[in-house]
Amino acid sequence: MRTETRILHTLPHDPLTGAVSVPIYQTSTFEQEAPGINKGFDYSRTNNPTRAAFEQLLAELEGGTQGIAFSSGLAAVDAVLKLLSSGDEIIAVDDIYGGTYRALHTIYNRLGITVKHVDTSDPANVLEAITEKTRLVWLETPTNPTLKISDIKAIASITKAAGALLLVDNTFCSPVAQHPLSLGADIVLHSITKYIAGHSDVIGGGIVVKDPELGQRIKYIQNATGAVLGPQDSWLAIRGVQTLSIRYERISTSAQRVAEFLEQHPDVGGVNYPGLRAHPGHLVARSQLSRSQQETIASHGKGAFGGVLSFWLKDDREENAVDLVGHVQLITLAESLGGPKSLLCVPSKMTHASVPRSARIAAGINDSLVRVSIGLEHPDDLIADLEQALAQVKESITEQAIA
């Protein structure tokens, strides 16, 4: 069964009324038949029917045994990190999302958990860094914001031999395009806020696991600490995911065109987008795509690599990036991604401001790097907006040089 069909038919009709939309169970508690005897629900922090429907859908999409929905992506990050103990070690991708970096380096390092950042686009770097203390390897593929690609299957073989868990943050690809569990990952993490909910109106996080026992450990942590996705937001996420396949394919097609435009622009220093043949991870990214996206490429030759790209300017100064985002007229200057409207940001001053500059530069996050989340607008309009903004930046640079 294809992804778009599975999405729609994993959702149950309400057994009480036949409603085809999952009801919102806006309740904090549930009547019990006797002490400890209930209909599967006793308190909405522990479980809620609306959230349960979304969690089942998430698990089905990722091919896992259990889905767990959290109040934010970082709440999901936090629950995974609580699996570890003082003295444990994490190997993490070098250009990791700024919020995850902040949690690792300002909270969990104080609790005795150490982190090594490596360029995971080469599995040999993971093999070299892994030790007997390594309990978790943390991948993003593509990474945020430089869109590096890691070979999940190759790294999974390394982590399995070392007895460590492998987590893949699958936010950028979504379950439409990539299934890390099938490639050997133990945990898949999502910011539900992004492509899955898809409308810039929900904050949420999700985890899917392959091993039921691991799922129960994470579920216990969630119940003990309380970071659950509420029923209203669970319903919004269910609503959003029903159009995920069509949104992802449309956005990917537009992103490919925008990336190709930027790649040829004389004032752009470089473009990070795995759909470009020049991208060093293009072939690995393509090999890891889901069957539906492989077929999209076979039919159209492109348009399956997601909606996020980043680029930097030839005149690689932060002030030029700030100037550029100040001149866009259609694309919104904002953090986040995956929504219907295109967004852009300057990671050095926004999403990755908590990362020291030396670490940012080492990871490839240039001072003038701009991250763009392509939305559902017509790609010609997005290209025109970027073109006029780049022209104004060039004019400013020329005026400064004359002065």
Structure description:
The protein is α/β, with parallel strands linked by helices. It has two domains: 239 residues, 3-Layer(aba) Sandwich (Aspartate Aminotransferase, domain 2), CATH 3.40.640; 158 residues, Aspartate Aminotransferase, domain 1 (Alpha-Beta Complex), CATH 3.90.1150.10. Helix content is 41%, strand content 14%. The chain is built from 15 helices and twelve strands. Strands 1-7-6-5-4-2-3 form a seven-stranded mixed beta sheet, with helices on both faces. The longest helix is centred in the C-terminal third of the chain and has 24 residues. The model has no long low-confidence stretch (mean pLDDT 95).
Known CATH architecture of the largest domain: 3-Layer(aba) Sandwich
**Total number of strands:** 12
Query: Which fold name fills CATH's third level, the topology of the largest domain?
Result: Aspartate Aminotransferase, domain 2
Helix content: 40-55%
Global Rg: 21 Å
CATH superfamily of the largest domain: Type I PLP-dependent aspartate aminotransferase-like (Major domain)
Order of H and E elements: HHEHEHEHEHEHEEHHHEHHEHEEHEH
Note the overall shape.
Answer: globular
Strand share of the residues?
A: 5-15%
Give the number of domains.
2
Please tally the helical runs, counting DSSP H or I stretches of 4 or more residues.
Answer: 15
> By helix and strand content, what is the structural category?
alpha/beta
Q: Provide the low-confidence segments as ranges.
A: none
Give a quick account of the main beta sheet: strands, pairing sense, barrel closure. 7 strands, mixed
Q: What is the straight-line distance between the termini?
A: 64 Å
Strand order across the biggest sheet? 1-7-6-5-4-2-3
CATH class wording of the largest domain: Alpha Beta
Average residue pLDDT: 95
